[in-house]
Fold these 2 entries.
Entry 1:
Amino acid sequence: MSAATKAWRPPMGWNSWDSYGTTVTEAEVLANARFMAEHLLDAGWDTLVIDIDWYDPTARAHGYNENAPLILDEYGRQLPDPQRFPSSVNGRGFGPIAEQVHALGLKLGVHMMRGIPRIAVENNLPVLGTTYTARDIADLDHVCVWNPDNYGLNQNHPGAQAWYDAQIDQFAAWGLDFLKVDDMQTPFHADEIAAYHRAIAKAEAKYGREITLSLSPGGWVSTGYVDFLRGNAEMWRISDDLWDRWEDIYQQFARLARWAPFQTTGHWADADMLPLGHIGLRAERGDDRDCRLTPDERRSLLALWCMGRSPLMVGGDLPTSTSQTIVALANPALREVTAGSRNNHETVRERIFASWDDENSYRGELIVWAADAADWADGTMSAHDGGHYAALFWTGDDAYELGRNIELQSIVGLDERDGRWTLSDLFAGIEDGATPADVRIEGEGADRVIRGTIPPHGVLWIALDPK
């Protein structure tokens, strides 16, 4: 098994958090799996993740429970709530769901908190395969500040590694493909991350199946950790939770620009979930709703994540989302750009004023990203061989008319500025309610520019191909 084969492109999938918070059920997971297999698998969407507190029988919307009666085995390892996940009874865990998901051609993952359950420590349960107990290995000084379920682990004690080894061995035995592990990066728990990585490596060697590791949350995560992160994980969050507010999307422009140069095959900075579609059914924040972003803001979200090569994990309940949402997610350009681009970078970021001498006339920011089309890491030929991608974003509240400030040569390169180029809209044919693209090449030779109108909080997302 080669580490390079894991997450060779940014993973694309569904996570239950934005829709169901801590309360998702087996029926809801399988309904999303069947919908994904039928409508989105061909577009690259192939992973489902059951988010937090699947082991809490008292789980509820809008928060966590103090002293929750977590369901554990005799070694303190979490087990699915059998009321919500009836196939898990008799020690089968998530094995039956994993079998059904795999039969659809998909992958299954779960969320997990750093550390060991408080109940296991209070009851002093044994650590599987050792003479240690939960009290021996608990670290009461490094406890999650926002979730009360767990204590930390003392990674200076050999039983701490044994605990993670046993926990992940069980996940691998169930057939899980993906682990989203929380409370790892804010603050940055390097010893815990490394221990989790070692446990996954042992489980992969034993069971012969790959397990992708995703780390959360990501507030203030420094690019100085990149070498360590690449050595220990396939995904790591670069922000706290993101919701369906334009201000949340806007904050990600700077973060993705900072991390884009570090994206590499198998290891991805993650700008968080896509709060698209039908969300808030029983979630932590907000009421039952369709995504509150405008159609143009949704396009900006998708184009920015793809140009930044972030993993794509949608949060909306797929079977009950609008047809416009599903059409947007099925756009083949999403996988095309995340899997088949390189040299992705922000080229322009300028504050625009209605009058150059009036500081009170600020309108918004013009932000431009560029990337080269590249063959995929699995050997698939690029859809735009020899071409380039560009995304022209506008953050203002009114439409922005591009002048002659975005030169074609700034996207294709000075060496190719005299070539003949065709422009295509990467949202062409996508009927998602957004403003139809108004974008074109004007001028001759080296004087050519990209012109058009960018809608409020919108984007022009294009491919440039040599004739």
Entry 2:
Amino acid sequence: MRRLALATLDANWEHDHTVPSRTLYPHQWSWDSAFIAVGLVHARPDRAWRELRTLFAAQWADGRVPHIVFNPALRAGAYFPGPEFWDSARADGAPAAATSGIVQPPVHAPAAWLVHRRAPSEASVAALRWLYPRLVAQQRYLTERRDAGGGGLAAIVHPWESGLDNSPAWDAPLAAVPADEAVMRAYRRHDTAHADAAHRPTDLDYARYVALVTAYRAGRYQDEALLGRHPFLVECPLVNAALGVSEQALARIATVVGADPGPHRDRAARITQALVERLFDPVTGTFRPRDVRADRLVPARTVLGLMPLILPDLPPAQVRAVLAEACSPRFGLAARMDRPLPTHDRTAPDFEPLRYWRGPSWLNTSWLLWRGLRGHRRADLAAGLRESMLDLVDAAGCHEYFHPDTGAGLGSPAFSWTAALVLDALAEG
């Protein structure tokens, strides 16, 4: 598995970053690069730092880290939605590089800390010094400019910002987004040329995705003028749990670079408190996204509800509730798992074992939960989840995602974050 993972990462290396997949995703993706750096440090630490530096070199002036940094060497139209669709160059504060205008979960500070901790050196300290102010700016952008609900949490303006693009968690908020499948006739989707259309978002979903980007782009990606009227504003448990964990990581990084860790610890505590107050549902005992426009929690029970377990200071009552949800038949976490962790409640009527994020198992969400379990001293459950993750790759290879019942590989057959995170799981066994 280690040889396969390294070969996958080497094959996907593109001069200064790693592409998630040579077929489906030929550019640099934000949270992919964070996960990739976590794996690369075990074999290619110089590349791990270069991965993060390349991404943050394309940071916007307001602090946002774009979810895609486009490779200028690829021909126009080679990927949709490409740089011509995003048209970020006309936005104030956009970088020289062509990028998208939206973000992804801020998992980069914890990734940077893990890379340093696993391969400490003068070079890694220098890399942290360069990254630290940029990571702080990323946090400031999300906590200040994206607090659409006024409760201390960041709102996402597009399902793609959650990382779980097509999750059932977005069905209710997306239903309010006006769109017509006919809009897709003006564009050519590339994902369905490389993957089974039955496994991908529908054309109606994509029409709504396009409508949301069009609305955000029309305001030149400026949040202050847009947040009051944007059709999709949702507080995501994963994005905000990552915000809290990032402040914890920044406190550790601050001690290395000579900054004050105290404010980071204070902000981590405030984010955790806001997450519990705004997104925890005591009736069902799980965390749910909040639709800011409708001011209500969304009904779907997805793996997003388990992600706050990555917070080291999550209160004991919520830890117990999340563990009960994870170990229920909905997700099947156990010290010995007979099936991999799904991304949606497997008992729900809309559970789809083949469609993107609507049921299949992904290594990144399993890896995040695995780290959360270890942090909360559940070594038994962590060991069961790790074994399940490794079994998937051992049997099917470094696929993008996996069937939640059979473990068959789905999506891209040579996916970078799967390779990277299996390297980390192997090293931490």
